[in-house]
Design goal:
Blueprint: E1 7-11, H1 16-24, E2 30-35, E3 44-46, H2 52-55, E4 64-67, H3 78-98, E5 103-109, H4 122-127, H5 151-170, E6 173-179, H6 193-196, H7 200-212, E7 219-224, H8 236-242
Parallel strand pairs: 1-2, 1-4, 2-3, 4-5, 5-6, 6-7
């Protein structure tokens, strides 16, 4: 019986989520990194994912990929997210295909659906106006239409669809995680964080569950947020399919911030009532 650990490449290995993954799951997997900067703790290829020839060698001999490399700043910059999001993710899928990688776990985002915050009751929940919301509110599932609120979120929607195409066309397994707010201090600081907060260990557990999922699970999309009191994205699907059990709760943290619509609406966005 083989005792070799599965070989897993992490793109964005120096980032918060990438770093949490290889630090906390190193007993289960043999990790390597694909990163623009050095990651001395694990074998690492220094390259930009938008440069296909430079990043391709990182995929040799890899069993699975956790794709977390991306920019989360300047969320409405088309040029930035075209290269890092769309071109870079296409390169990851293509490099995985050429090297016979069996699964890509794609770090998508809850921003694929935050456009719903323009509507009641999701905007009120994000703004912290809980007294204006009648219970129970309808949970949005992974089957609801996507509705991004930024170029960043729109690019992630495209990449989910691209992953589905790679899965269908080349029989690859592509599992998309719509990540909630994973925070450096592992605690919400804004009322805005309360619906979408994702505890660090819940995040790592979700990635682990995706890596361990049956080989015949070829494509799926999972909402990854902790079991927060004011969440509006459904998490029953990953519980049922993956056996994921989130343990964090945003409301366990007392914060002074009172919220407000300035945390929800950007630029010229207006509520739709």
């Amino acid at each position: 019986m083989s005792t070799e650990k599965p070989k897993v490449l992490i793109t964005g290995a120096s980032g918060l989520i990438g770093g949490l993954t290889w630090r906390r799951l190193g007993d289960k997997y043999e990790f390597s990194g694909l990163n623009r900067s050095a990651v001395p703790e694990i074998p690492n290829t220094r390259a930009d994912i938008a440069d296909f020839d430079a990043m391709l060698p990182a995929f040799e001999g890899v069993d699975m990929v956790v794709h977390m490399a991306n920019y989360t700043s300047d969320v409405d910059s088309w040029d930035l997210h075209l290269q890092s999001g769309i071109v870079g993710t296409r390169n990851v899928f293509e490099a995985a295909r050429l090297n016979g990688v069996k699964r890509v776990v794609f770090g998508s985002t809850g921003d694929t659906t935050t456009g719903y915050e323009l509507d009641y009751p999701y905007g009120e929940l994000a703004a912290g106006e809980y007294d204006k919301v009648a219970e129970p509110w309808r949970m949005l599932t992974h089957m609801d239409p996507t509705r991004p609120k930024s170029i960043y979120g729109a690019c992630k929607v495209f990449c989910e669809a691209l992953g589905h195409w790679y899965s269908d066309r080349y029989d690859m397994s592509v599992l998309c995680i719509r990540l909630g707010a994973v925070l450096a201090d592992n605690a919400p600081t804004l009322r805005r964080h309360y619906p979408g907060y994702l505890d660090q260990q819940d995040c790592v557990d979700m990635i682990d569950r995706c890596l361990q999922a049956p080989d015949d699970l070829k494509f799926d999309v999972f909402n990854a947020i902790s079991d927060n009191r004011y969440r509006w994205r459904d998490i029953d699907h990953p519980k049922q399919v993956l056996g994921w059990v989130p343990r964090g709760h945003a409301e366990d943290f007392e914060i002074e911030d009172k919220g407000g619509w300035d945390q929800v609406l950007d630029g010229d966005q207006r509520l739709r009532r």
